Amino acid sequence: MVLRNTLQKTMTAIIHPDASADRIGEQVRFKAEKRVRGLSDRGIAWLFVAPTIALLLAINIFPLIWMIRLSFTSLNLSMSYLPMRFVGLDNFNDILTDEDIWARLQTTASFVIWSVALEVVIGFGLALLINRQFRSHSFWTTIILLPMMLSPAVVGNFWTLLFQPQIGPFNYVVGLFTGIPPSSFSMTGEVALAPWTIVLVDSWMWSPYVMLICLAGLRSIPDYIYEAAEVDRASSLRQFWSITLPMVMPFLMLAVLFRAIENFKMFDMVNLLTSGGPGSTTELVSITLKRAAFEKWRTGYSSALAIILFVTVFGAANIYVKVLNRVKQR
């Protein structure tokens, strides 16, 4: 009997191979469904989240832990033949007592403050203008957003050509309105002008980003509030100070947070525009970190500097977020 059943199954598989394959597929699918049904909701959630967590650990967490380890060593890749020694907090002490590092931090802070302030003013002004929904406002919105769609490397090279004293149009435009000979000054080569050059270019590129955030805030204000203010005969200026600005303030503060963090770690655009020059006038702390890590090959020292910058940004951002939450609760 058993032999007869086996022969029947074999003949069926030979004559009808598709039916046999379907039967096998159904059995595999049934077993898989049975396994999934055996998992709890939490187990299924972990099943989907686990690859992301593994990727996060591999790309972010592990390098961070490795960098913390290296910050307590004397590792210098230009002298890799020397053994790596544990030096404790010597790297951190060298950084915090280095006057050049404090000067670079001051340069970075100045760049962040002026660029973010200018971006907020320009971005908020553009948002107020676009929010009026005038004729062809969609077209002009697209034009305004173009700079932020470009790569910082492209922007750096683009403005480097514009600032060329001999062939760049920027100097000719300035000379046209001021009467100054175009070849008599260089925006990226003079100590007095270079810091304002990187502020100008960064503001040109990222003011549209601030505009988008502010525009979202303006569009979230209900119309009935303005209608009630008009019934009370409130002037346009009064409506701005009492309605628009307070309700957009959380969005403005959010834009300031995002831009301050990004500008604090700004590297590529400034490196292409001025390379930190003339001298060290525009040398941001990120450029100092790059030179310590990839020109002097002081891996332990640069790891300690990166940790100090990370803790500074992380701490300041946490304090700022707490203030932002209080503003939202008002």
List keywords for this structure.
330 residues; 75% helix; mainly alpha; 2 domains; MetI-like fold; 14 helices
- Which bin fits the share of residues in helices? over 70%
Q: How many H/I helical runs?
A: 14
| CATH-assigned homologous superfamily of the largest domain | MetI-like
Shape descriptor reads globular
Proportion of residues in extended strands: under 5%
Per CATH, which architecture of the largest domain? Orthogonal Bundle
The arrangement of helices and strands along the chain is: HHHHHHHHHHHHHH
Structural class: mainly alpha
> What's the CATH class of the largest domain, please?
Mainly Alpha
CATH topology of the largest domain: the name is: MetI-like fold
Give the N-terminus to C-terminus distance in angstroms. Answer: 84 Å
Output mean pLDDT: 86
Poorly predicted regions are none
Rg, alpha carbons: 30 Å
Outline the structure in words.
Helices cover 75% and strands 0% of the residues. The longest helix has 32 residues, at 99-130. The relative contact order is 0.11. It is built from 14 helices and no strands. The mean pLDDT is 86. It has two domains: 2-79, no CATH class; 98-329, Orthogonal Bundle (MetI-like fold), CATH 1.10.3720.10.
Could you give a short description of this structure?
The protein has 330 residues and is mostly helical. It contains 14 helices and no strands. It folds into 2 domains: 78 residues, no CATH class; 232 residues, Orthogonal Bundle (MetI-like fold), CATH 1.10.3720.
